[in-house]
Specification:
It is built from four helices and nine strands, in the order βββαβββββααβα. The chain has about 120 residues and is of the alpha+beta class. The strands form two sheets. The chain has a six-stranded antiparallel sheet. A hairpin with a 4-residue loop joins strand 1 and strand 2. The longest helix is centred in the last third of the chain and has 10 residues, at about 115-125. It is globular. The relative contact order is 0.26.
Length: about 120
Amino acid sequence: MSIPQNLSYTKEHEWLSVSDGVATVGITAFAAGSLGDIVFVQLPGVGDTVTAGEVFGEVESTKSVSELYSPVSGEVVAVNETTSDTPEVINSDPYTEGWLLQVRLTGDVPELLDASAYAELTQEN
């Protein structure tokens, strides 16, 4: 399983990258693999706000439905429409083409896991 070194991670299996005050958020390869074939994604709209630690959407697979938790607080400035049209891209490329949303930060980024800490977390599961 690939865990990119340049990203931050949550214990709920979301990843995050921040550039110029905008965070890009997705789910990890571990989460996508655990879910199985993803068939539907529900995300907030552009202009909506998300709050760190709170549910912002859900992902449905052939196995289950899982809630998505925002790692940051802010305003949604972009939603990856590709994930609505072809949600399986999250399984095949969760870190590039399968990102979920971009958030303009309104506060500090909470302390998150680095790649090695996330690797340890997923080894325990």
